[in-house]
Amino acid sequence: MNITKSEELFSRAQQSIPGGVNSPVRAFKSVGGNPLFIERADGAYLYDADGNAYIDYINSWGPMVLGHVYPPVIEAIQKKAVSSTSFGAPTELEIEIAELIKTMAPNIDMIRMVNSGTEACMSAVRLARGYTGRNKFIKFEGCYHGHADCFLVKAGSGLATLNIQAVPGVTAGAASDTLTCGYNDPEAVEELVRQNKGEVAAIIIEPVAGNMGCIPPEPGYLQGLRSICDREGMLLIFDEVMTGFRLSAGGAQESLGVNADIVTYGKIIGAGMPVGAFAARKEIMQHVAPLGSVYQAGTLSGNPLAMVAGYTLLKELKNNPDHYAQLEKKTAYLEEGLLQAFKGKSFPVVINRVGSMISVHFSGHSIRDFDSAAKADIPVFNRFFHHMLQSGVYLPPSAFETWFVSNAVSYENIDNTVEAASRFNG
Ligand code: HOZ
What we know:
Blueprint: H1 4-16, E1 38-42, E2 45-48, E3 53-56, H2 71-81, H3 92-104, E4 110-114, H4 117-132, E5 136-140, H5 158-161, H6 172-175, E6 178-181, H7 186-195, E7 200-205, H8 221-232, E8 235-239, H9 251-256, E9 262-265, E10 276-280, H10 282-285, H11 304-319, H12 322-342, E11 350-354, E12 357-361, H13 370-374, H14 378-390, E13 393-394, E14 403-404, H15 411-422
Parallel strand pairs: 3-13, 5-6, 5-7, 7-8, 8-9
Antiparallel strand pairs: 1-2, 2-3, 4-10, 9-10, 11-12, 12-14
Helix pairs in contact: 2-11, 3-11, 7-8, 12-15
Bound molecules: (4S)-4,5-diaminopentanoic acid.
């Protein structure tokens, strides 16, 4: 495979961009080698600067649920762009997307658009603190809620990938109200709540963890957190940046049957354009400025191009629930194929999957939290990553990230993916 142009671009990028990338995981630092520079994408495929094609299992880390360059979204953006790229003033489109989301996701009376998942989660925690009058919150080891200071404690995703234990620049004060414990461990939550009685504003959780590979919540776990929050007057925040509108039209709340108090969303709300959002019942959202005094603002919030892209994608997902049935079937087919492909190999494998989120851990024990994910064989994953890349399959360049399947992927693409995996020998 010729990657000369990518190599040249990476050398050039490193002169002007830290590490040559604008987000750390992209640098391939943990899997080794140099990142590919992407020129374009179409449907299930990514094309790099040298013209090589790859079946894409990142899909911009989730939002390309119907594949890249989905025609109605592109047409809507093109049409909208001629009326300006930003107003910094309200538009009817913002009402339309808010109304649409309310018909799709449970428990939402009001929604505020922001520009990223980081902003959404940061604002959600601020709102929970403002609403409850308490300062502390609980997050789980290996969960990632963006890069706001208070979240960079035992976080997954890029921090796990690069093995960054403490982030210089995050002051002890900024992180002192962040309480952490293991995922899927309800007793550890009870213990934190006991030790901090009446001081905890909220629990924030990825209802399906996606930043330490894919880790499903164990049966009853989320329901248990819901009960603790109800009992203690705390808010339950679902970070649905990955799961929202991907697991189902109503996201994890609907798929897993648990109601959150505040929900955060990410890039899928903009069909891949830079967007995030936080949403809740009116009783909570009325504390957000200008209605209340929990301040949050942004010129690009509700940006017309992002809104029209997101509106078009979400409407399609709402009107055609068959997309979710297809995604489930295709990803189950991929899971089964990979299990067969790895049968009889010299290395153990665990495949975790919820809907169209799936990941492979090279491990002989179940992967249910950050500790078990970190004990998996990372060097084997790294070799697997490069083997698949050479075979034209683009996986997340980290053992701590989830793969996202798009509905543009064909069964033939999946067969090719499985065939490539079957040739991997550790
Ligand atoms: N940490 C992000 C996924 N969990 C990666 C974002 C990116 O590199 O675009």
